[in-house]
Predict the 3D structure of the following.
Amino acid sequence: MFLKKVALAGSMTAFAATAGYACEIGARVSIVGNEFAAIQAVGAAAQECTGASVESNLTSEHQTINVAGLSGNPSEYTTAIIANSSIVALMNEDVIRPLNDLVAAHGDGLQSNQLIKIGDDIMAVAFMANAQHLMYRKDVLEQAGVEVPTTYEEMLDVAKAIRDQGIMQNPVGGAYKAGWNLAQEFNNMFLGYGGSHFQPGSAEPNINNEAGVNALNMMKALSEYMNPDFLTHDSNVTNAEYRAGNVAIMNMWGSRASQQTTTEGVLDEVKAGHAIAGPMTVGGGSTPASTLWWDGWTVGKNISDAEAEATFIAMKNGIRPDMLNDETSPLAVWLIEGYQPTDAAQGVFAAAQMGTTPYPMLPYMGLLHSALGNELSDFMQGKESAEQALADVEAAYRAAAIEKGFLQ
Amino acid sequence: MRHKTFFWFFLPTGLAMLLFIALPIVSVVIQSIYAPHPAVLVEVENCTPLVGCTTETTIDQDATAALRAEKPLGRFVGLDIYFDRGHLAIREVREIWANTASWGDMFDAFGNLPFYRAMAFTLTFVAIVTPLTIILGLVIALAINSLHRHLKGLMIFFSLLPMIVTPLIGSLILFWMIDSRGVIGTALVSMAGDPDFSLKASTGLMWVSLIVYGVWHAAPFAFVVFYAGLQTLPSDQIEAAQIDGATRWQQVKYVVVPHLMPLVTFVALIQLMDNFKVFEPIVGFNASAHAQSLSSFIYNDLGGETRQLSSASATSVITIIGVAILLSPVLVRTWRDFKGAR
């Protein structure tokens, strides 16, 4: 433990020395955020600041603690690293502050497309983009004699070919774990079929329709080619299956692309055969069945001005252009100036070019997402019809939205 | 004991209970009958990377803050949240009652409402796990009590292990074993001869796994209590029974069990309460697609991206009422014994 700390401190100083960059802050900084490689890199770069303590708590449970951790005065955390879905909860509870003054004073070097503007207020600074897209084993597809799919219908054909030739029993992977993941896969497919989650200009749900039924039927068809435990597989487990050579084709987060071959214990044939492509379309549509995401950081409202300023400086240091190096560049599709896209980034870039719909940033989207996650598993197990499942989702959402005051 | 002496003895405990148990319950009840104010929504222009600017809906913070400052508790909704679809679903229940023809249809329709589905699992869990725990605990206690004294310490330690292991860890270990690539999962696949056989994909087998875990985890508690009780068993009673020619089974049935009866009541009380609030195995087994409980509803309400405090509070109050109903027979019986003893 001690040796590890010494080694870490050594590498940090070496890094700071080569970077030749000084970051001085005058008040405490405390970060809460999700846990994946790119965010860990940002957190580590923010912790290079000296003058006051920079603490970070990066955990996959971040969204269950960030509202509470930013409430109270002074709040436990001074910044939350969020994505376009989770910033909504923070804005709903009014726990993050507009950054206009801090951007004016310290924002040099930030690009204009990094600034997330809600009306006139800059509410977050984005540093990376993300999207789910195709990842596949080119060796397995070649062996089966099939082309790389561009639509979900083709993906079914590919899966059938691989299974029929006895190459793999369950070639399709998917993060279909009941709850958030399953709901997200529905969102992808629903948008791909041209659906829109809410009736225009209102919080009334709009999913029990043809696009919703088609989306569920496609998910059901895909699940026939998945590991039978698919309702307990989140993206971590799905990736483990892929790296173990049990899965040949899947729709997966771009932020995981670079680690598919670098994680410890990956089979050699997976390393050699791993390939990525853009997101797939479905049902003859032109918009990909995927959603576009950004990750960024915010500054809490319930802290002193000195702490807000220190937080802004430290977090900006976390995403400064020269934090990008051979190690950190492949971790994400960075929105930072001077970023040179690596091979691992082409899937997300393809998603952006194909006009993928951004994840809806609406105050009531979180409630619909939860309702989808709770109610869709019955359909996936074949216990009820698609129409019944979607009616249940709308009813569950409506009860929650009435409680929260979004519907009357 | 005189009433006055009792009062002064009880006062510190009573104060602590008031502060840490009664007041929070009052607070939960209040939160369950208030809901957040209607959201004031405005259309604004959102600008995000790779997409550009679009018109989106957001909450008008100034207007909402003014509403909150005026009435910090929110709007009074009475029992509305208790009656909505996420809880008792009064309106849906009435519709089912009026519109379904057969009992089977009605059963299916109730299974579609989250509260009743969760109650179906929770009550099954309580009804099976509680008696099995007591029986298994008693058997272990009797078995260990009859061991040679050099072996006792070691066996007590091993018997207690399931309780020592953190519930979440214990359930995770079992979860990995029954995974389709785990030890038990693979064995079941080869026995069933079906490569797609999966324990985790079947609701019935998932319930069995949860119940097995529940018994495994709670049996040591019953064992410890019964083992302690066995140490107080007067040896002259057993010897008298032996002289009368009682078999081993008769000794247990007519001497040991009646002696342990007050402890059985105690273990039953604690187990009813614990099992009604079943939670860790549902999380550990990733079983939310097959089984839910009131506690897992509270967890979902508070763990989503948008927290639903009123809904979670209402579920908490329903849990308290449910526990009270479950315990009432045992409590009434204890009260009668107490009256009879005087």
Observations:
- Residues 177 and 229 of chain A are 9 Å apart (CA to CA).
